[in-house]
Amino acid sequence: MDKYDHPGACTGILITPRAVLTAAHCVSGDVKSVIVVFDLKIGEARKVPVTRTVIHPDYVDEEDKFNVGDIAIVFIAAHQYPTVIIPFDHDVTFTDGQQFVFAGYGRAVSNRSRSTGVLRKASIAASGYDTPREVALKPLMDAWPCDGDSGGPILRKDMSGRYALTGIMNAVSAGPVGECLFQNSFMTPLHSYSDWIASTLASGG
């Protein structure tokens, strides 16, 4: 994307073959262009143009803070790339220590902005603090979301080993020298936005 005249990257997940779920702060404000890339590494190949972007009406674009409604759907043009749609999670519990998997194109090295752009996954846990609009997260081991992971999927694995889409990455905390911090990262739980997601998909792209 090109936002505020600076190129950048966020993560999203397909919820239909032509609709990408991501964070609203990735596509709001002074955004010049957004392109969706189907690849393990962000580059010039496998790009698909965007046809329409819908941001949740509750979202207010304020930097450096958690914002409710930080969710958007990006509709894309028809394409030939294979797609796998992960079902939504129907479990709405987020107890302290409950583990999830997140995926994103965020920094591999916390203080190197140019280390973004390669898809990675890691485990993360709920902190025990949650509201209908946010779930606070805490690290497991030394993996932690960073710039570029915003909008990325957060998945829950059931006892049979199948994944379900629980939420998307919202706020990612950065320190005074641009390093990502092990604090203040949040999930936007999708069960609270299921009606909006359904109506937006019904309206089409």
UniProtKB/TrEMBL annotation:
Record-annotated Peptidase S1 domain positions: 10-202
EC number from the UniProt entry: 3.4.21.-
Keywords: Hydrolase
GO molecular function: hydrolase activity
Keyword Hydrolase: yes
Pfam families: Trypsin
Keyword Phosphoprotein attached: no
Superkingdom classification of source: Bacteria
Protein name: Trypsin-like serine protease
